[in-house]
């Protein structure tokens, strides 16, 4: 990260000023929103709409109302392609209706409709339970009605009992009065064209059509009025779009499929990385809370603003919709930002240095530079996008689309609040996804910046910033990709706060400019609010840049998971030290006694363990052998193992009876250990001159003795209980000493229960029988080979199942 003003910053700021100038110059010439002229505000539109519907005789006082600003996508595409964007924008502002207010009244239950016929008013009341009534009225931006329809699900073949099929003269008179009033509002010369009559059992349906003498922007214009049973059910002012230009929007349906596939792939990728980082404890969930809260608040305001266009809708229904969707929106950014920040901190932590310092300090020079650079990035993006869109329209015969969603900015009660909320959750999603997540993954896979840029530009080409989109889709991908290249370059050179500030500023700048062009004092006020917010950010950036905090005094944030990692690494180092210390307590090498072949194995289940073996050399023909197993595993077991070694060494020097040694060790262990800890043990003395093994067993696994000369394998298991279970009386009365003769080629196997109780994935134990079979199969082999085959067979049996207990063995073969 560069934390002081550089020469490249001067070029960037100069380019930003030029980009802003390009955007402001091209805005009314290319962007279709510039044709939106709000001569009448939304409340007045609703008032006029209600008066118009009431004049038709409809009483809708008990109906729910929803108001949206919408547009005709096919008409917009035709005007752009046929006349160019600049002329098309003037036509939309003056004569051709592309933008219109949609007012919809709906109700579930009974409704009342009043219809008037001439001077005589006839009231027809219909009561239909649990039937959905729907009344729609479209009005242009000047408040002129352009479409009306009334429909409900009762409209079937059978008429209600009180329905009267009105004569054709009455219907024509009703339609004529309405058509005359509409033509007077629209202006121009019109002529009656045709009547279409369709009688059925539910009453005759008659449609009357008037056409305009002259075309508007090359389009034929007509008024259609549908009358049924004396009621005006539909009227529509329509434009006939030439076939080559119609249905343009629907030709790009594959765009939605591509976007959905990419979203699903991204979702899967985030889930995979989330699970991987979570299992490795490499996620700091606190770091994702701030963007999650911002997105949650932005989504709440955005959702409430959309819902507020529905007057009379129950508050619980609005809250239910928000409660269902909000966890996915906020939870998604929480997971995405947590994973992205974790990856970024591990890959190039310098991209987060300003963000980390911002957690501790409100204003500092690097923050000021980041904000200046971010707003400069927004100017550059808008200028570049406008220039590319202009070239795409002029050279590539492109056109703009506004998507299928209503134009909430102009329909929102507080447009500036809408823009801020939209910026929070859409722009943050985009910049966190691409910079913190995808770009960091690319950086981890590819070290060269050119590959990172190429991959991100390709991915960015499928995603649009929250501003108008050019069509066809190929042109849009080109514009998106080049815009994405700017973000990639800025993130490679600077850091995350810079690109985040740029992404948040883009929709604020665009819709602030749109508000200034709307021709309404209301929107002028909200446009000034948006630009005022950017002004405040610039002032804060200037103050931060001049703050006394030195630029180099940056703070590195240490997430909780890094502290846990450091703690685990410290414990791991300490365990390694403990392991090395413990290994020094085990024999460094096996005794070399003529006539005995000795092999040993000790594998702790953890870094340190509680298994123990030792040798007491008593001369050239005599050897004491001990093997033990402390209850439990880990540090505590290792401690008591060390304690046991000291006890054995102190007792074996002066006492020759294994039984008495174990009795004395039991007393010492009982006095010096916590209750609940005990150690099983075998201690024996090999005497090659006497050709005997004398040993005692303190609750340990039996000794396996293989006598190849006799062809027998036996488990020698004299009675005895573990050390530390009882003070001494029971122990001394229970334990026995046993003496067995030894012969050439006899094999003695001493082992702990980690050998015979080794488990596979199905929790089956290896068992003593398999141990005996191995000893019998490899009796003729050296002791080291026999022990190696035993270890291999246990590993083959357990496969990938984890080792759950320490494994220790001593094999002595009489040679």
β-strand number: 24
Low-confidence stretches: 109-132, 153-163, 246-251
What is the count of helical runs? 23
Order of strands, widest sheet: 8-9-10-11-7-6-3-2-12
**What structural class is derived from the secondary structure elements?**
alpha+beta
Query: Please, what is the oligomeric state?
Result: single chain
User: Radius of gyration in whole Å, from Cα?
Assistant: 43 Å
Described by the principal axes of the CA atoms, the overall outline is: elongated
Helix share, percent: 40-55%
Strand content: 15-25%
From the N-terminal CA to the C-terminal CA, the straight-line distance is 72 Å
How would a crystallographer describe the biggest sheet?
9 strands, antiparallel
The pLDDT mean sits at: 82
What does this protein structure show overall?
- The chain has 815 residues and is an alpha+beta fold.
- It has three domains: 7-30 and 278-545, no CATH class; 33-245, no CATH class; 589-814, PPM-type phosphatase domain (Phosphatase 2c, domain 1), CATH 3.60.40.10.
- Helix content is 49%, strand content 20%.
- It is built from 23 helices and 24 strands.
- A nine-stranded antiparallel sheet has the order 8-9-10-11-7-6-3-2-12. Strands 15-24-23-20-21 form a five-stranded antiparallel sheet.
- α7 (289-307) packs antiparallel against α8, α10 (365-394) packs across α16 (521-545) and α12 packs antiparallel against α15.
- The chain is elongated, with a radius of gyration of 43 Å.
- Residues 109-132, 153-163 and 246-251 have low confidence and may be disordered.
